[in-house]
């Protein structure tokens, strides 16, 4: 809210200039050759630690969750999952080459910035609460007609949504026939069935059961079945298909995290 007020007072152009200046200052202060952030293109001497150290995350080996020494870019504050997403988009899709209409759900600041300066992308971001989003939207009731978007990006959102399959179906509804979506979630591959218990309301208990106090489930391998039941074809793309081991380390991403690339069932 404060940032929005400042932007309104000084103007969007000047606000963006100040953001650029801040990024350049951070890049200079944190400069190094060991790591590289693909979100802000900074070379840095280290990524910062971040994430939650919760027993259930360790016990169920939840990929995409937990505490990491190399979690956060000190320049743009991107997370390891943000860096993985942008690398996949650049190396395995045509998102920056064709004229496309994109819906970005719960936008990450750094990735949003990349999309907004891409002239080929007709970009719209949406969220129920975030001040970063262009519009307010409930993804279980998307106020757009069928076949509205070529691409939908939804990165670590569905684990917060009680009616997740309703959200998946809505996303499928608004994707054009030749379009696609990336629907990332934290997931346990040692768990056979997705674990959820909607009677757990206390934030502390939710953290103990689900790894974070605003999560409502832990996804298992049957996450793919949920997507398919919602009318989506899904392919799990291994990180090794587009990154070397050296790059996984240099970009500070999780080598075990798969990208869930979804298309419309025809």
Descriptive report:
The protein contains nine helices and 15 strands. With 266 residues, the protein is α/β, with parallel strands linked by helices. The strands form five sheets. A seven-stranded mixed sheet has the order 8-7-6-9-10-15-14, with helices on both faces. It has a two-stranded antiparallel sheet with strand order 1-2. Helix 6 links the parallel strand 9 and strand 10. Helix 1 packs across helix 2.
- Total of helices: 9
Q: Tell me, rounded to a whole number, the average pLDDT.
A: 91
H-E order: HHEEEHEEHEHEEEHEEEHEHEHE
Rounded to an integer in angstroms, the radius of gyration calculated over CA atoms is: 18 Å
Structural class of the secondary elements? alpha/beta
Number of strands: 15
Shape: globular
Strand content: 25-35%
**Going across the major beta sheet, what is the strand order?**
8-7-6-9-10-15-14
Terminal Cα span: 43 Å
Largest sheet report: 7 strands, mixed
Question: Summary?
Answer:
The protein is of the alpha/beta class. Helix content is 32%, strand content 26%.
Describe the secondary-structure layout.
Blueprint: H1 2-10, H2 12-29, E1 31-37, E2 42-44, E3 48-50, H3 55-59, E4 62-63, E5 68-72, H4 80-92, E6 100-105, H5 109-116, E7 121-127, E8 135-136, E9 149-155, H6 164-174, E10 175-184, E11 187-188, E12 195-196, H7 203-210, E13 217-218, H8 223-229, E14 232-237, H9 245-250, E15 259-264
Parallel strand pairs: 6-7, 6-9, 7-8, 9-10
Antiparallel strand pairs: 1-2, 3-5, 4-11, 10-15, 12-13, 14-15
Helix pairs in contact: 1-2
């Amino acid at each position: 809210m404060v940032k929005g007020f400042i932007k309104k007072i000084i103007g969007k152009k000047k606000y963006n200039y100040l953001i650029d200046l801040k990024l350049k200052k951070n890049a200079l202060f944190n400069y190094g050759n060991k790591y590289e952030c693909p979100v802000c293109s900074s070379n840095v001497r280290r990524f910062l630690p971040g994430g939650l150290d919760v027993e259930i995350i360790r016990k169920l080996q939840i990929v995409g969750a937990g505490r990491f020494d190399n979690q956060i870019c000190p320049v743009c504050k991107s997370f390891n999952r943000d860096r993985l997403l942008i690398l996949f988009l650049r190396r395995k899709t045509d998102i920056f080459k064709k004229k496309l209409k994109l819906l970005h759900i719960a936008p990450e600041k750094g990735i949003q910035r990349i999309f907004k300066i891409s002239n080929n992308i007709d970009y719209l971001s949406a969220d129920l609460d975030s001040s970063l989003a262009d519009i307010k939207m409930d993804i279980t009731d998307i106020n757009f007609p069928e076949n509205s978007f070529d691409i939908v990006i939804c990165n670590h959102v569905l684990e917060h949504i009680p009616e997740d399959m309703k959200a998946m179906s809505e996303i499928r509804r608004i994707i054009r026939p030749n379009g696609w979506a990336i629907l990332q979630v934290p997931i346990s591959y040692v768990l056979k069935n997705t674990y959820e218990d909607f009677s757990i309301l206390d934030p502390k208990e939710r953290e103990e059961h689900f790894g974070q106090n605003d999560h409502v489930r832990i996804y298992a391998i049957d996450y793919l079945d949920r997507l398919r039941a919602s009318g989506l074809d899904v392919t799990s793309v291994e990180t090794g298909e587009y990154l070397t081991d050296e790059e996984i380390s240099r970009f500070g991403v999780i080598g075990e995290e798969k990208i869930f690339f979804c298309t419309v069932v025809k």
